[in-house]
Structures are given as C-alpha cells and as structure tokens.
Specification:
Elements: H1 2-11, E1 33-35, H2 40-45, E2 49-55, H3 60-76, E3 84-89, H4 96-101, E4 109-114, E5 119-122, H5 129-140, E6 144-146, H6 150-156, E7 163-167, H7 174-186, E8 191-195, E9 212-216, E10 223-226, H8 231-241, E11 246-249, H9 256-264, E12 268-274, H10 281-294, E13 300-306, H11 311-317, E14 326-330, E15 336-339, H12 347-355, E16 377-378, H13 381-389, E17 394-400, H14 405-420, E18 427-433, E19 451-455, E20 461-463, H15 470-480, H16 487-493
Parallel strand pairs: 1-3, 2-3, 6-8, 7-8, 11-13, 12-13, 16-18, 17-18
Antiparallel strand pairs: 2-4, 4-5, 7-9, 9-10, 12-14, 14-15, 17-19, 19-20
Helix pairs in contact: 1-9, 3-5, 7-8, 14-15
Bound molecules: 2-acetamido-2-deoxy-beta-D-glucopyranose (NAG) (5 copies).
C-alpha cells in the first residue's frame, strides 16, 4: 500500500485543486461544523451520513479547499435530508489520536462516515463546491437507482465510467439483497442501477429476465454479465472486470481512476512507455494488447504510458527518453526488469522470458565516474559492490539526496574528514546519490538524508549515528576500523 502510494504520486497529482487562495473566513454563519476529540464520537453517532475533513492549519491545499467546502456545506444544509460537513484540526495535539484512528496520512483527507460512524469510506469526489455537492448528493442517496426508461439508462451510461446494473424480475429476494449489499460496499468507486427490464439497456441480451448483473464499461468488451450472486464473488468480479486489459496513462484525467486501480492491484506491473504521437504508436498498442490478453490471470497487469506524461516515472526508475519505447516490469518485492528500445515483435518473447525467470533484474545507476579523484569518492549502484563490499577497506559511505539541505551542510565536513585520511590507503570516505541509484535495502536502511554507514575492512556494517562533526567522525573511524588483510594472508585463504 505504501509503495503503491509512492508510485501513484509519481504518476499523478491525484487531486487537482481549484478555487481561490486563502479567502478570509469571515462569513457570519459557518456551515461547516467544527469537531474535536471531546465531541467527535457523540456528534458522529447522531448522524446517518456525515463528511469529515481532517486538516492542518498550515496546509496550503486545505486553505484552498476551505471556501469551497464551506460553500458546499451551505448548499447541502438545504438538501433533503440535510448533509452535514464537519472538520477536525488534526494538527491539534489532542486530536492526533483521532487522526491516527482514521489513518490520516496527508492533508486534507475527507472521509464519509455512515450509520453513526460504523462504516467509514474515503471521499473520492472533486474538491470544488459544485462537484462536492453533486458527489455528496449521490453518496448520501440510495446506492443504486432504478432505471425505468431508456432515458434513465442513457443518462447514467456513458463513455467515461463504469456502471453496474442489476436486472431482476422483481425487487426482492436474496439476489436483490445481495446486489444491494454490493452497491453499498462499492458505492464510492462505481455507480449502480437496477431495473426490471433489460430492454431499457443499450447493450447486451435484452431478453434476459434476471437475476443477472450487467457491468457496462468504457474499454475492452462493452459489457459483461455475472450470474453468481454471492456477495464476495460479485465484489471480486466487479473489481477484476473494471481493470482494463491495458491501462492507458497519459495527460487525460479520465484515465486516472484506472491508473490508480492499476497501482493498487496486487499483480506485478508491466509498463510500456512510448511516444503516443509517434507513428509506431498504433502498432505497439495493438501488439501490447495481444500480449496482455495472453497473460491475463497470470499475475501481471499492463499499462501503456505516454512519455509526455511520464517524467516523474522516468526519474523514479532512472530511465531515459532515448530508451523508449521501453518496457519495465516492477514486481511487488521492488525488483525491476527493463527492456529498453523494444520492438513490437520482441514484446511477447521478452514478457515470456520474464515470467519464465530468464530476465535479470535491472538496477538504477548513475554511470560509473571515469575519474574519481576528489577526496570524497563517488559510489554508484554499478560500482557499489566493488568499492564497498569487495574492496576490503574501511569505508564511510554517505547516502544523500541532491536537494537535501542537511547533506549540503555535511558536504564540507565530509570533505575535511576525507582529506584527513587521504594518506591512509585503508580508509575511504565516499558518497552515493540515493535518489539516482538503487540501494541494497537489505543492507542499508536509508529512510532520510543524509544517512551514514561505516563498513569495516573485516566486513562489519555499522550505522554512523554520532554527531556530524569532523572530530566525532574521525574519532568513530579510528575506533571502529579494522586492519586491512595483507595480500599474503589473502593468498593463504585461497
Ligand atoms: C466541539 O468542541 C469544540 C471545542 O470545544 C467546539 O469549538 C465545537 O463547536 C464543538 N462542536 C460541537 C458540534 O459541539
Ligand atoms: C448472497 O450472499 C451470501 C453471502 O455472501 C451468500 O451466502 C448467498 O449464497 C448469496 N445468495 C445467492 C442467492 O447467491
Ligand atoms: C513525440 O513525437 C512527436 C512527433 O514525432 C514529436 O514532435 C515529439 O517531440 C515527441 N515527444 C517526445 C517526448 O519525444
Ligand atoms: C526492500 O525494498 C523492497 C521494495 O521496496 C521491499 O519489498 C523489501 O521488503 C525491502 N527489504 C527490506 C529488508 O527492507
Ligand atoms: C553530540 O553532541 C552533543 C552536544 O555537543 C553531546 O551532548 C552528545 O553527547 C553528542 N553525541 C554523540 C553521540 O557523541
């Protein structure tokens, strides 16, 4: 989950916020209800449906949302029945347990709480007033609406989204109840309808009487029917069918909900990146689609991405524009497999090689520096093994990020430490850009920058947690260094 969040944020700005900046909150009456740790539970318990914004006063996106949220609250207070919008200042020390109870990881986060708080759902709607109102009217109404006419059907079935319709001979019985449960469970993600007459629907066998569930979708086959009414099976069928054979990633926001699904899938992820404006695009797309069909149900999901929209992903994977068209597969243990400059007729064979275990993982690395003459040596993923693990020396290694202020502060100090050991062939001071090189995380636990590790000549690996002063670092190295094995004794070992 955490991993998929990282990936997603590299691909998408998930919520594009609109609205005016920092309006004065000086309206006479506030419609948004303020809640805190002392009254949250009681207040929520009294409501069948309530929306809560977890925010922090310093957060820019929260400030942008505030006037829109207030406007929506004013409009929804006149809804029948009224819909209540509330907010919790999650930065307030006493409210922090509340925020962690609801697993709030960023601000603002909106949650929909149903039935006195017993059902919690993520808010997945827009962030401007009209959009909030429309989304919440739908969410607070019935989970599924009856389709009574062809007009009803055309108003809910369109080319951008999925619609799940239950067709029934009558609106009662166990199948109907199970369908209703399904709609309740998945209402945040899909729209639902139910009907007594399949002839009203634009696609599929019009003569069925049901019970049957028909899913309309904007990609691949235009509809799919399900007949197994076990609730869990229905949930699974809807979720699986609503992932396109090939997910499209470009700058079109209509595709983004599907990109999110792609990243949330437990499968390994195959991603083909190419220039959608180039003349080979169609050929690649159709070939890739065939391959995706061929590997359906084998633990792989497929995405095709436009280079124009993929700068974040390229940086993350350490891949370059001149390597496209390329396929990269990432498995859930974080390993990556790369086929740069792929041709259409190589795709199927390479993916098969991958599934057969015949492709070596790809490592993100900067090029090995040709000259490495500065006091602080440069380590990259491709020479890490040689310089750190196989050199048999004592090495202090800094993991840094180019943008990190503490790293910049440390740089001249590290330089001085390096200079002071310059005449000592057994000690190396080195640095690695941890954003541009894959780090063996089973050895080095790099959670922040800078992180420092010391590998002794005898192979011990110690984190350096001392003060980042020249004296302390030199002292640490002197105390912990091991004697470098003599070439003779190495011969004896062989
Ligand atoms: C909850 O408590 C806070 C702090 O005392 C107060 O500002 C707020 O109005 C209360 N909310 C309700 C709904 O009582
Ligand atoms: C309805 O769902 C329940 C629980 O998932 C299941 O046990 C039952 O068999 C389902 N009913 C039908 C008719 O499929
Ligand atoms: C994609 O192809 C078009 C047309 O050939 C070209 O104009 C554009 O610069 C290319 N974009 C990238 C990112 O290479
Ligand atoms: C290393 O990273 C991968 C992917 O990010 C993760 O699955 C794995 O558990 C990590 N290993 C350790 C020892 O943290
Ligand atoms: C770091 O420096 C502070 C103050 O100079 C000192 O109190 C502390 O013990 C030092 N820590 C280590 C690990 O040497």
């Amino acid at each position: 989950m955490a991993l998929s969040r990282v990936w997603m944020s590299l691909f998408l700005i998930v919520f594009t916020l609109t609205g005016s900046i920092c309006e004065e909150e000086s309206e006479s009456k506030e419609f948004v209800v303020t809640l805190d740790h002392s009254n949250f539970t009681d207040f929520v318990a009294k409501h069948k449906f309530i929306v809560v914004e977890f925010y922090a006063p310093w957060c820019g996106h929260c400030k942008k949302l505030a006037p829109e949220y207030e406007k929506a609250a004013a409009i929804l207070s006149n809804n029948d029945p009224p819909v209540v919008l509330a907010k919790v200042d999650s930065n307030e020390e006493k409210n922090k347990p509340l925020a962690s109870e609801y697993e709030i990881q960023g601000f603002p986060t909106l949650k929909i709480l149903r039935y006195g708080g017993s059902v919690v759902q993520d808010y997945k709607g827009p962030r401007e007033a009209d959009g909030i109102v429309t989304y919440l009217k739908k969410q607070s109404g019935p989970a599924s609406n009856e389709i009574k006419s062809p007009e009803d059907a055309t108003s809910v079935i369109d080319d951008n989204k999925i619609l799940v319709v239950g067709i029934f001979p009558e609106f009662s019985g166990e199948q109907f109840d199970n369908f209703t449960t399904l709609a309740e469970r998945l209402r945040a993600d899909y729209e639902f309808g139910h009907t007594l007459d399949a002839k009203l629907l634009p696609r599929g066998d019009a003569s069925v009487a049901g019970p049957i569930v028909r899913l309309f979708k904007p990609f691949d086959e235009p509809f799919v029917d399900f007949k197994d009414f076990d609730v869990d099976t229905l949930v699974k069928s809807v979720e699986e069918t609503s992932i396109p054979t090939v997910t499209i990633f470009n700058n079109d926001p209509k595709n983004h909900p599907f990109v999110i699904k792609f990243f949330n899938s437990p499968n390994s992820k195959a991603m083909l990146f190419l220039n959608f404006s180039s003349e080979h695009h169609d050929a690649f797309r159709s070939k890739y689609h065939d391959v995706a069909e061929q590997f359906k149900g084998k633990g792989l999901s497929f995405l095709i991405g436009d280079v124009d929209a993929s700068h974040g992903a390229f940086q993350y994977f350490g891949i370059k524009d001149n390597q496209v068209p390329l396929i990269i597969i990432q498995t859930n243990d974080g390993k990556k497999y790369l086929k740069p400059n792929v041709e259409t007729d190589q795709i199927a064979a390479w993916v098969k090689d991958f599934t057969d275990g015949n492709v070596q993982p790809y490592k993100k690395s900067e090029p090995i520096p040709e000259a490495n003459n500065e006091p602080v040596k440069v380590v990259v993923a491709d020479n890490l093994q040689d310089m750190v693990f196989n050199s048999g020396k004592n090495i202090l290694l800094e993991f840094y990020a180019p943008w990190c202020g503490h790293c910049k502060k440390l740089a001249p100090i590290l330089d001085e430490v390096a200079v002071s050991f310059e005449s000592d062939p057994d000690v190396i001071i080195a640095k690695i850009d941890a954003t541009a090189n894959d780090i063996p995380n089973e050895t080095f636990d790099v959670k922040g920058y800078p992180t420092l590790y010391f590998k002794t000549a005898s192979g011990n690996i110690l984190p350096y947690e001392g003060n980042r002063t020249k004296e302390d670092m030199i002292d640490f190295i002197r105390k912990n260094r091991a004697v470098v094995a003599e070439p003779e004794s190495r011969k004896e070992e062989l």
